[in-house]
Amino acid sequence: MSSVMTQGQCGELEFAACGANGSRSQQRRLRIGETMNQLFKVFAVDDDPVVLGVMQAILEPDCQLQLYPSAEDCLQQLQSEKPDLFLLDVNLPAMNGFALCRAIRSDAALKNTPVIFVSGCDTIEERIKGYDAGGQDFIVKPFEPEELLRKLLVAQTTVRGQRSLAEQIADAEMLSSLVMASMDETGILLQFMSKLIALESAAEIAAELLELLRRYGLEGVVQTRVGSAAQTQSAAGSNLPLEVSVIEHLRNHGRVFEFRRRSVHNFDRVTLMVNNLPLENADFCGRLRDNLAVAAQGADSRLKALQAEEASRRAQAGIIAALESVGDTIMELREAQQDQSAISSQLIVNFQETLLNAFVGMGLTENQEQSLQDMVGDFLGRMVEILGRGEQTQLTLQRLNDRLAQLRNSDA
């Protein structure tokens, strides 16, 4: 019997068998298929022919799919052919999915090939087993077609990125080995700390921590947390579901947590997890622990400083906005008082003209006219004095507005 199951062997399955919704899901599948490389090769392993048939209905012809009912059949085919992605059922007969994944990882040519586990059990213990075995993602049965297609697209992007990165690493490997030969363990740490102060984002800090691990010959995962934003990074990619699950589970296990060859350093804003401590060399391993603790603490302090700088920038922006608002209000008040002063002055002039014209027709004696003029003049004099105070208010408002403008310019 061939290890590759054909569509005829799986039986005629409708696309709706995996929860799809008629033409709408079909259109979604085709739209995703347009972006998927036709040469992207997937090995799917499951002892249930119905599940294999469902995968075939979802994925073909979007990618080159080969189906296997057992781990042994898949391993036999791997002797002559390598895929770009594995879909592995966890509960396989004989060799289960976790054991198959470890066997795949033992092949140097498949060390970085993405593995997505498919399981009916969704627990943190199951996910940690998958992560320990070398998996990158996890799908829980029963799954939706769009979920499977979406995860394949993510894996395809990761594969392409790894291939591009591998070319860059190959070019830099000679220089890296020369640097490694001339730099001791403390020198690597000091170089990291000297770079740390100039880093301006959580992404840059995570990248430098991963580079630090690489220079020590280690592999691991870094999670940075600034405010509500958390980013998980490793050499395999960003925010891989299994890595995120494991980090979130371990970040509350104390400042330093170790199990098997893994070491976790937890701080408020960063978690650094090493996957391959050299336990066979106790002295070297001890020095590495100390250096990594210093590096993680330094990264946490830098993230705290970046967070404080961002808060300061926001506060400064708020102060500038408040000063601008106060300045606008003062200008509006000044303009309103100017208008009021002009109106009051014009009313005084009009009143004087009206009163003089009224004297002509009143038939007043000279003494009566003089008495009225003195009384009105005294009143108008007090009014002019009040308006003069308004001019002083105008000058005060102008000086205040000029001072606010100086504060805005100095804060900016």
How is this fold's topology laid out?
Blueprint: H1 7-10, H2 22-33, E1 41-45, H3 49-59, E2 64-68, H4 71-78, E3 85-89, H5 97-105, E4 115-119, H6 124-133, E5 137-140, H7 145-182, H8 185-196, H9 202-215, E6 220-226, E7 229-234, E8 237-238, H10 241-250, E9 256-259, E10 262-266, E11 270-274, H11 282-360, H12 366-411
Parallel strand pairs: 1-2, 1-3, 3-4, 4-5
Antiparallel strand pairs: 6-7, 6-11, 7-8, 9-10, 10-11
Helix pairs in contact: 2-7, 6-10, 8-9, 8-11, 9-11, 11-12
* Beta strands, count: 11
Q: Encode the helix/strand succession as letters.
A: HHEHEHEHEHEHHHEEEHEEEHH
> Number of DSSP helices?
12
Mean pLDDT: 78
Structural class: alpha/beta
Reported for the largest beta sheet, the result is:
6 strands, antiparallel
